[in-house]
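ESCALATION

Customer reports they have been waiting on this structure for their group meeting. Please prioritize. Original submission:
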Amino acid sequence: MIQVRRATLEDKPALFKFIQAAYQNRWQYKIPERWQWEYVDNPFLNGTELPVWIAVDEEGNVLGQTCALVEPVKIGDEVYRLGWSVDTYLFPEYRGQGIGFQLQKANSDANEIFMSLSMSNANRRIKSGLGSVPIDPVAIYSRLMRYESESIRQAVIKRAGRKWARLGKLLEGVLHWTFLDRLAAYVLNVWLGIKNYREIPEVEPNISMEPVDLFKDEINQLWEEVSPHYYAIVKRDAKYLNWKYVQQPHITYLRFIARKNGKICGYLILRKGKPPERYLGIIADLFTTPDQKDVISSMVVFAVDFFRRQKVKDILVASTIPVYQSCFVELGFQKTKEVFPMFHAGQENPVFNLALESGSWFLGKGDHDWDQYPLAR
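Update from on-call: job pushed to the front of the queue and completed.
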């Protein structure tokens, strides 16, 4: 008989064995460091119980799991406990038996607020059945920064399609052996460099970007000043930011504080993809008031210029905030996708009902566990 229950530290050997089988190509980035950071040393956990639910057979083998990335979230004027649905997986041979539903229900029931951001269609259907509802989409934007010979050859194959696949492969070979792909990349990059020089403005002269190793007390003051502008938002104070962007394993985030006329007015979090990821730039988080478009624009300009010097292929950023989105477009980003998060509250509360209204949520690339190594995309 298969049992669904909350995991304990005594389950670690069986659980880690399951994770190695479930995440064959990247289990080493799930355990043990990230697992410890996410589910044991997380400063926002409620007590010592693990936010991990497992399905086990009579012999103690773990067959499936679902987990919660616990974070503080401000909705209205109060801070609540949010559990992001993450790391849900059930071995294929046990699917279709209601086990996945039981796992998700246990996870949902244990969290005051339960949310999902990126999920499979099957997972979305289960969450809908448990009462989760969609909220405003998170729009993803991309900006091309550099052409490479390999991407040009792949574009030729894609253009040829299945019908002309052989011709596409032939053209790919011709481009490679005649060096035309490298020549094309060089010419296109010269053109792109001129285009960027003309289109990307300078950072506003009264705004400076200061790198920091650790977020200190002044970031709490920023949170108090900025957070009232957003109805629903993960609490971005020093405790959270240091845990998320300093202590997170496997990822090196670059952290910057924005100052306007010497006064703190925002922050910016960047990271570069590294093998086996694509060599891209990610704007993981940027935070300021929505009425300071000059600050938003300057932070994005700073990020674009930084990644240009790093010679990344492209830059990714995401946001639910319209003024942020307009700045992205003005600076050459194109919307490539929308992701629809799901929201569920364990109890009736008018405050939670207002969180379902359009324009309520501040979400970006750093929320959920969306940005984790090696999944930069």
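Sent to customer with the following note: Residues 203-340 form a domain with the Aminopeptidase fold (CATH 3.40.630.30).
Escalation resolved.
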